[in-house]
Amino acid sequence: MLRRLYDWTLSLAARPSAPYALALVSFSESSFFPVPPDVMLVPMMLARPDKAWSYALICTIASVLGGILGYFIGLGLYDSIGAWLFQLYGLTEGAQTFRQAYAEYGHWVILLKGLTPIPYKLVTITSGFAGYSLGWFILLSILTRGARFFIVALLMSKFGPRIKAIIDNNFNLVAALAIAAFVGGFVAFRYLF
């Protein structure tokens, strides 16, 4: 099934709608969708290495815009549900401590987690929930998401044919490693932060 998805994504790169689909996935992943844009981005860059840099730009812009939606989801959840839950469980002081810690260290959280397999939607929603500065959130998101996607573009433009050969010859292993990184990101967020 994953192999068919990979082959389908490679064929999608030639379609005029490919950048729109990539933007939609990148936007959605930053706020609510569970699948990272790399699932489309890497095969599309492999199929069209001449478009790698424009695909990275599309992912960056869409991811930051989706991150802003995620931020407002987190902000709205705190005001409507979060505060009530903290009060219900007697954790109101803990919520304030969390928000103060995020105000002080949130920039490192955004920078580090934006580059890792930790799902970015968790960062965006947490930033809104903690009341982190929206301006700083947007700036740091542009930096970290841009770095992530443009590093992928650099790797694909330099080593694309080799990477494609490795993926084609070892697809099951590469897919297993990608799934492990994806699941590991959720686990790391849960236990490390």
From TrEMBL:
The chain crosses the membrane at residues 53-78, 171-192. It holds the Pfam family VTT_dom. GO terms for cellular component: plasma membrane. Keywords: Membrane, Transmembrane, Transmembrane helix. The keyword Transmembrane helix applies. Residues 48-157 form the VTT domain. InterPro entries: DedA_domain (IPR051311), VTT_dom (IPR032816). It comes from the Bacteria. This is Membrane protein YqaA with SNARE-associated domain. It comes from Microvirga flocculans.
